[in-house]
Write a structure and sequence with these properties.
The structure holds 2 protein chains of 2 kinds. By secondary structure, chain A is mainly α. Helix content of chain A is 62%, strand content 0%. Chain A starts with a helix and ends with a helix. Chain B is α/β, with parallel strands linked by helices. Chain B has a 6-stranded antiparallel beta barrel. A 5-stranded parallel beta sheet of chain B has the order 9-8-7-10-11, with helices on both faces. The longest helix of chain B has 30 residues. The chains are: A mainly alpha, B alpha/beta. Chains A and B meet through helix 1 and helix 2 of A and helix 1 and helix 5 of B.
């Protein structure tokens, strides 16, 4: 009997159950339209790398300030991001805080 | 032994699973269609490459499960090509997503100069994959150079994972990177450096035709387990006044003795095999295998064997193993009498075994006239056909047999076409 294939299929199917990586987009990144492709990639990598809400929030505020400045220079209205990219870190931290 | 149909499906299913799993894991949500497509293509190519990496391992147990080493190498090559094409389309789709906004933005998305190491590593990986694949198709390159160029593919895989790490995706990329290094290291240490092979020594070398030598190998430790019709992968090292090439090449076993001694037929087809024509007694060798199931599990029905050139070797091994138990016709095609390895021995064997009918033909430089050489349709019914030889000849014979009404289920073949 071929025992290899079921084992491999199960091993390969395991990661499919987990969620994929977070992705920066127009809906969750303020000033997306004002960023270069390199900045978008870097922003996405930075957000993915944060492990605490405070770190993420501090970066987010700096990012927002930069985008507001760019929007002001170009004389355009800056649309607000529809999602808080640091929210998932706050949610992850809350159960731990309650346990303390 | 798996049924042939299940064996044929195992590798495609494995590749499908290795491609689908990362795609499902990374399936984009709420992104524009072209960006989603670009992301899917990237993960699909990554999964396909991992399937291809697994298929490059030269292990007897794995080849048994996956339907043979020849099939594994064939799919390793196919998967590599498909992965490269898919991965090349990955940045193009991402750039196409930016094209409606502006061509400049689309170019910025692609440009390694306008981006950081995430994009640069992606392009470096693609360039190495292209380089390694180009070498794969260049069959005229000397094997020792070809091997190193082909190794560029492995470096390309590692750099591709570096591209993902630069994108901030460390889960599950770090485990994938460890797996890639494990598979590449396994192949290099166990297969290329010969850790999985067993030590043998050349006991004799006998020229048996123009550019063909039969080398007898005596085991220095536990011998490999092998059956007639199988092949081994052998590297000959330096010793006894002979400078070995040290590269592992596949050779068909022409006989197996009770004490584990094996003989292999070596035809001068490349630099290393040409050099082996002058091999001396006492040269150390490492033997890995055995692989293949070309003549395994033959039914008791009448047989038609068709051999081209050195492709006669597995049949010789079987005939040397003892008398036949079913009527068998062996059609042996060779360029000229001087090229015909084992011809006189086969004539002697045919004279002694009433069940064996030998038809030997010198075809010259032209392709053989199969229409006149093969038995008529009514003579072929209820026969199992086994074909071994150069890929072009095997393909022509399979086609001719199908035209005579033989179903593919009754045609078994082995090509001598992988490095």
């Amino acid at each position: 009997m071929n025992r290899l294939l079921p084992v491999l299929l199960l091993a390969l199917a395991a990661p499919a159950a987990a969620g994929g990586p977070w992705r920066a987009s127009e809906t969750n990144t303020r000033g997306w339209q004002l960023m270069t492709p390199e900045e978008r990639i870097e922003h996405q990598a930075r957000i993915r790398g944060f492990r605490s809400y405070d770190e993420c929030r501090s970066y987010q505020l700096a990012h927002h300030r930069l985008m507001e400045e760019r929007a002001r220079q170009r004389g355009i209205e800056l649309p607000r991001g529809r999602r808080d990219v640091c929210e998932h870190l706050r949610q992850a931290a809350e159960p731990a805080a309650r346990a303390d | 032994m798996l049924s042939p149909a299940r064996n044929r499906l195992t590798i495609p299913l494995l590749l499908l699973a290795s491609t689908a799993a990362p795609v499902f894991w990374a399936l984009p949500e709420d992104l524009p269609p072209l960006r989603s497509l670009g992301i899917i293509l990237g993960w699909a190519g990554c999964g396909m490459l991992f399937g291809s990496l697994l298929l490059m391992l030269r292990e007897t147990w794995l080849s048994h499960w996956l339907g043979g080493l020849a099939a594994m190498y064939r799919w390793h090559h196919r998967a590599g090509v498909i992965a490269y094409v898919v991965l090349l389309a990955h940045p193009l789709a991402l750039a196409a997503d930016a094209l409606p906004a502006s061509p400049a933005l689309a170019w910025q998305t692609l440009s390694p100069f306008a981006n950081g190491w995430a994009v640069r590593l992606g392009w470096l990986s693609l360039l190495l994959l292209m380089f390694g694949l180009a070498a794969t198709f260049a069959s005229r390159i000397p094997y020792r150079i070809w091997r190193w160029l082909h190794a560029a593919l492995g470096i390309g895989v590692v750099l591709g994972l570096g591209h993902l790490l630069q994108l901030g995706i460390d889960e599950p990329v770090l485990p994938l990177l460890a797996l890639a290094v494990l598979l590449l290291g396994w192949r290099f240490i166990r297969d290329d450096a010969g850790l999985a092979a067993r030590p043998y020594i050349v006991r004799s070398a006998t020229p048996i035709a123009d550019g063909v030598v039969e080398i007898s190998l005596r085991p220095l430790a536990q011998p490999i387990a092998a059956d007639a019709g199988q092949f081994v992968v052998v590297a000959f090292h330096s010793g006894a006044g002979f400078r070995g090439c040290g590269q592992f090449h596949p050779f068909t076993i022409s006989s197996i003795a009770g004490d584990g001694e094996i003989r292999i037929g070596v035809k001068a087809l490349g630099d290393c095999t040409r050099h082996l024509q002058s091999i001396a007694t006492g040269v150390p060798a490492r033997v890995h295998g055995a692989f293949g199931h070309f003549l395994a599990g033959r039914p008791t029905t009448a047989q038609l064997w068709l051999a081209g050139g050195i492709g006669v070797t597995p049949f010789v091994a079987l005939l040397r193993g003892g008398p036949l138990h079913q009527p068998t016709t062996l059609i042996y095609l060779y360029r000229s009498e001087t090229d015909a390895a084992y011809l006189h021995e086969l004539q002697t064997l045919a004279a002694a075994d009433r069940l064996l009918s030998l038809q030997a033909y010198a075809t010259g430089e032209e392709p053989p006239e199969l229409a006149s050489l093969l038995p008529a349709s009514h003579d072929l019914s209820n026969r199992e056909c086994h074909v071994c030889g150069p890929p072009a000849m095997v393909a022509a014979v399979r086609k001719a047999l199908c035209q005579r009404g033989i179903t593919t289920r009754h045609i078994h073949f082995e090509n001598f076409d992988f490095r």
